[in-house]
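Continuing the series of single-chain predictions for the mutant panel. This is the parent chain; the variants come on the following pages.
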Amino acid sequence: MASVVVDIDDTLIDTGLRMQSVWRELLGREISMEAVETMGLEQIFTKYASQEQMTRVRELQKRFWDILLCLEESGIESLRFHKPIPFASDVLQAWKRESDIVYLTGRTENMRTLTLEELRRFGFPTETAELFMFKPEDYARPKGEDPSGPTLIDTKSELFSKICKRFNVVRVIDDYPGYFPIFKQFDVPDRIGFLRPRKYSSQHYIERGATRVIRSWRELEDDIPR
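Parent structure:
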């Protein structure tokens, strides 16, 4: 059977309001949605952190990931800000009749139950779907705990390799252009970029290996994977 690999955050689930809440918890001030959607971690620290906070930026950087990955209780509470991206659940429900659905997410294993509960609540198929997740230790490098450790791209590539050995992957959908060289390397025929227009252009995805780019899941309503 044909299989589809789908990212979760900002591909199926809108995380913008939650990210705002994480920054509010971390820095004690409001960060604009534009900043959340267009700026990276270091840029936000540089622009919004106080002088005192910048003196302990490594500590705050680690805590950012601990909150985001629900290693702190406040991270779990902030999940309430998530919203499903329109039409995504309807499309996946239609696809599951003909295809295996495989979720590949940067969320970590400690979030497995939380993630499955959230997917069900938002109407995404979970009964026959597979869920591949990172491990908390995979974030040692972004946290600054092990600067020589594997990158998140390395980890994603390793997981995707395992998926391709088990499944006949004919389509992959992700919102981050940096992962598309991985999908191209494994010769996935249909590599779809889910556009984040405030941060990337369609060209960012195509240049890195996407075969096409969509702005809405509605574009895929009648596009059953084969």
